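Input (structure):
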């Protein structure tokens, strides 16, 4: 199984003037290898760094606390890219890298209100060099799969309901070619049936695109246990301030114990130490 991301000793902070013991670390990734061609769900309690890891992996925000022992690598089809070094490149080079490899979907749809539904969906694929006609044809197929086949190419985004707009944002994310799709609660505003339909559509998309992956943050533990190939559970840790007495800061931690995959023999979820059936694993995750 080939790697997609390989990370060691990476600390994430939004404080650009980071100082040990003073500034707040949001997330510490001690060791993490994300395999290529898998659906990876990230779970954990609120405020533990789930959105931070998407911002960091997706090169949306430079949260990296630079250190000599930090390793942050992305494996392209033919090369290994040092993502720490990539942040030192120009904005144009960063944008080109994201356009080539990444697609994004968020709970907030971020749709453009002055564009039609079809234009919103097709735009990224058109930026990748595909024609408007072929992009609109693909958009129609995806909309039909999401139960929105009745929407025509002239329909404006603001004419749709909130749930329809959420599905529209999902369609926009899966339409272009990508190496990784990042989703931050992409089904959070959908009912159970439409959430399942959306993840099934994503699963089919990944099957059609060899070695493409999805990394999804979710509070829906049933959806994660049902559809994930890998589940990353962010644990909570704490550190006492060196400046303020009795002040404790909490942050997320990812290490080898955080990674759960299915045991090939039992089909249980295991991190190499603990094992759970689907039902018990879902209950365990809901309590954390």
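Output (sequence):
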């Amino acid at each position: 199984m080939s790697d997609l991301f390989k990370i060691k000793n990476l600390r994430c902070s939004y404080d650009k003037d980071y100082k040990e013991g003073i500034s707040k670390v949001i997330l510490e990734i001690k060791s993490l290898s994300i395999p290529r061609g898998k659906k990876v769900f990230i779970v954990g309690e609120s405020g533990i760094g789930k959105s931070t890891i998407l911002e960091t992996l997706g090169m949306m925000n430079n949260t990296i606390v630079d250190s000599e022992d930090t390793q942050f690598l992305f494996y392209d089809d033919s090369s290994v890219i040092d993502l720490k070094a990539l942040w030192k490149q120009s904005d144009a080079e960063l944008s080109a890298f994201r356009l080539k490899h990444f697609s994004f979907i968020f709970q907030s749809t971020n749709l453009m209100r002055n564009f039609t539904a079809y234009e919103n969906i097709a735009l990224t694929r058109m930026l990748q060099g595909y024609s408007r006609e072929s992009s609109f044809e693909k958009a129609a197929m995806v909309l039909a799969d999401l139960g929105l086949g009745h929407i025509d190419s002239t329909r404006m985004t603001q004419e749709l309901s909130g749930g329809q707009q959420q599905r529209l944002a999902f369609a926009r994310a899966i339409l272009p070619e990508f190496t990784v799709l990042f989703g931050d609660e992409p089904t959070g505003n959908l009912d159970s049936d439409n959430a399942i339909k959306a993840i099934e559509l994503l699963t089919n998309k990944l099957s059609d695109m060899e070695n493409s992956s999805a990394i999804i943050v979710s509070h829906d533990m049933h959806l994660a246990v049902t559809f994930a190939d890998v589940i990353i559970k962010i644990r909570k840790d704490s550190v006492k301030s060196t400046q303020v007495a009795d002040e404790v800061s909490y942050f997320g931690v990812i290490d080898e114990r955080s990674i759960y995959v299915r045991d090939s023999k039992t089909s249980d979820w295991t991190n190499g130490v603990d094992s759970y059936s689907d039902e018990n694993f879902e209950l365990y995750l809901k309590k954390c």
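Notes: Residues 192-208 form the longest helix (17 residues). The radius of gyration is 20 Å.
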